[in-house]
Write a structure and sequence with these properties.
Oligomer: single chain
Keywords: Membrane, Transmembrane, Transmembrane helix
Organism: Arenimonas metalli CF5-1
Number of domains: 1
Structural class: mainly alpha
Protein name: DUF2157 domain-containing protein
Radius of gyration: 22 Å
Number of helices: 6
Strand content: under 5%
Order of helices and strands: HHHHHH
Length: 200
């Protein structure tokens, strides 16, 4: 006895059910990552407060916590925007790398200065690099393909700041430059993959 074949409508219902399950799992995963991002930011903000209870090496005042809080809020907000726009994991990772690179640059620069100390005038140029990444992202409305080119331009700006500081005898930071350019270019490559298009 032959088993009855599934009707086209039954197949369509099964596919819709499978798709709904995939979307639900993806939403749960994103919610889990969202909780991790915001929880991690809160923990990072509280870390200096805890450290101050055990050592005199960490001495933050209210202004330090406000600045750090604003920076973390900016990174988390960037993640939220990416989470709502993203259509694939490549976009999410690309956005995370870009936001992390911005945060790392500003944090290190404000804390100790990237070149020498925080009073070195060359350090102000690194804020220009971050501004380029942020303004460029807004101008292209966070679309993946143009975002790839924004990240390439940001890497070029990072290299330009390094070259200027070196030639002007203001400082020499090859390791930081290589790390940051690597982050910007890795983000660019992932945005390109997210767009599903080749360079043109």
């Amino acid at each position: 006895m032959l088993l009855p074949l599934a009707t086209p409508r039954g197949v369509a219902l099964d596919r819709e059910s499978d798709m709904a399950g995939i979307l639900e799992q993806d939403q749960l995963r994103r919610n889990g990552v969202r909780a991790l991002v915001w929880g991690g930011a809160a923990a990072l903000l509280l870390l200096p407060l805890v450290a101050m209870q055990f050592t005199d090496e960490v001495d933050w005042n209210g202004a330090d916590f406000i600045v750090m809080g604003v920076m973390l809020l900016a990174v988390c907000t960037a993640y939220e925007i990416a989470a709502r726009i993203a259509r694939n994991n490549a976009y999410m990772v690309a956005a995370a790398l870009a936001a992390g690179a911005c945060f790392l640059t500003v944090w290190v620069n404000l804390a100790v200065g990237i070149i020498g100390n925080e009073n070195n005038p060359a350090n102000d140029l690194f804020f220009f690099v971050v501004a380029l990444a942020m303004v460029g992202s807004l101008l292209v409305l966070f679309r993946p393909r143009p975002m790839a080119w924004v990240m390439v331009a940001t890497a070029a700006a990072q290299l330009g700041v390094f070259a200027y500081a070196w030639l002007a005898d203001l400082g020499f930071v090859p390791v930081f430059t290589v790390v940051m350019c690597g982050l910007w270019l890795a983000s660019a490559n992932l945005f390109r993959r997210a767009a599903g298009q080749a360079w043109s």
